[in-house]
Amino acid sequence: MTTATITNKELIITVEGLDKLLAFKGHVTIPLAHIEKVAHNTQGLMDFRDAAFGIGTIFAGMIQAGTFSEDGKKSFWDVRDPKKALLITLRDDAYDKLVIEVENPDEVTRLISDAIA
């Protein structure tokens, strides 16, 4: 799971607990200007195989954590429970998207949406 913090100009995603080891990363910092949109995964379904290769951990249907690439697009994942996942689409960044699990997805979606508005 992750926590999301907004500063004046950045979104800071902090990876918590054992997921730090599984993701090979403790945090991701994204300039707010790079965020196109954020959406809560209300369907509760997610394709955990959205990666051809990467540095991280995938246990099919259980967790995907780390940096992955497919079709030339780079993404960062930290998801165990797809019902709590957010999809953050980016532009002009090292990542094309972030797929992260947070404790309160609706609240974090509003927080990020307000910050980029």
Describe the fold and architecture.
With 117 residues, the chain is mainly β. It has a single domain (2-116), classed as Roll (PH-domain like), CATH 2.30.29. 15% of the residues lie in helices and 47% in strands. The chain has helices at residues 19-23, 105-116, and strands spanning 2-6, 10-15, 27-31, 35-40, 53-59, 63-70, 73-79, 85-90, 97-101. The strands form 2 sheets. It has a 6-stranded mixed beta sheet. Strand 6 (63-70) and strand 7 (73-79) form a beta hairpin. The longest helix is centred in the last third of the chain and has 12 residues, at 105-116.
Overview in brief:
This protein has helices spanning 19-23, 105-116, and strands spanning 2-6, 10-15, 27-31, 35-40, 53-59, 63-70, 73-79, 85-90, 97-101.
List keywords for this structure.
117 residues, PH-domain like, 6-stranded mixed sheet, 3-stranded antiparallel sheet, 47% strand, globular
